[in-house]
Amino acid sequence: MKISTGFDSGNIDCLDCSDPANVRLAIRKDNQSDFYQWFHFRASGVKDLECRFVITNAAGAAYPAGWENYRAVASYDREFWFRVDSRYEDGELWIEHMPLNDSVYYAYFAPYPMERHADLVAAAQESPLASLEVLGETLDGQDMDLLVVGEPDAARLPYWVIARQHPGETMAEWWMEGFLGRLLDEDDAVAKALLDEVTFYVVPNMNPDGSRRGHLRTNAAGANLNREWENANPETSPEVLYVRERMQQTGVALSLDVHGDEALPYNFIAGTQGIPGWNEERDAELNFFRQTYQAINPDFQTTHGYPANAPGTANLGMCSNYIAHHFACLAMTLEMPFKDTADRPDSLQGWSPERASRLGASCLDVLWAYVQQKRRRA
Fold it and tell me: Which CATH class name applies to 114-377?
C-alpha cells in the first residue's frame, strides 16, 4: 500500500500504512496557522482489501463537531464522488472501505482543483457575454481571476458573487460552476432578462493559494480571508485587497459570498443583522431572498442556520458585513454542508458537487425575483 498527496490540494501525513486495517494518518495544518480539517489523499495497492484509514488528530481539527454524522467521500476516477463508511471515535476519524480498484482517492469533500478552475474561467471567457480581468497575483504567484458578465455600464446594477474564501470549502466552487453555466446560457430566458438589468462581477475562487496547498481555511500566509476585509493588506491578504479595490470602482448593489459549513447539515443564508444601520427594510429584503430560494429549490431551507448578530455587534472584517455596511446593500453569506443534508439525504453521495451546482443554477431564479421585487418597490 502507498499513501500519496503529491497533487493539487493533497493533504495528509502517513504515519503508518503497514497494516491496511489500521492505516494511521494525520492532517497537516494550514501554513502559518493552526487551522486544519481538509484532507485529500490517494491510496494505491488496495484493491479488494478491507481498509481502515484512521485520522489520528481529528479531535484537534478546527471544527470537531464537523466529524459527527460525517462520511468521507471517495472516487476512482476523480469525477464521481461517493460516500464511504466513516465514524468519529475517541478523537479519531475512521474511514472504512474496501476499494474495488487498485487505487482510490479520499477527501473531506469532492475537490475542485485549480486545473478545473482554469478550465471554468477559460470556458466562461469564450462566451460573448463574459470578459476576464486578472486583478493581480497571489502570494504564490497565481492569478486572481474576475469574470465580468454582462455590459458594465451605469444603467445596470453591479452584483458581486464570490466563492471559496476558505479554500477547503470546495462545494462553493461547484456551486459557482452551476451558477456561471446557466448565467452564460444565451438560450436561458431568466439569464437574458437578468443581464438586461444587472452586470455580474464573479470571483469563482478567492483563495487560489490555499486551494492548491490543500488548506482548510487560510491563504499562503495563514490569513483567514473572511476576517481581512476591513484591514486587507498586500503582505498577508492581497486577494481581499484586489477585490475590495475593484468593488470601490464598480459599486455593489448586491453581494453573495458562497461558503461551506463543517457542522450544520443544511443549506442556508446568513445575513448581516449586526451591522450599523440595519433596519426593517433590509430585514425584509433578506427574508424575501431566503424565502424565494426555499420556494425555488427544496435543497435550501430557512429553519436552521446561524443566530443573527445583535445590532451593532457585527465583525466588519467579515466580507458580507463589510460590504453591507460600506455599500449600504444586501450582502449575504450562503452556506452549504460538508455532510449530507438532514432534510433531503442521499445515502450514495450526500451533499454532492452535482447538487451544489444545481443550487447555484437555481440562484438565477431567486435573483430575477429579487430584481423584480426591487423594481416594484421603486
Answer: alpha beta
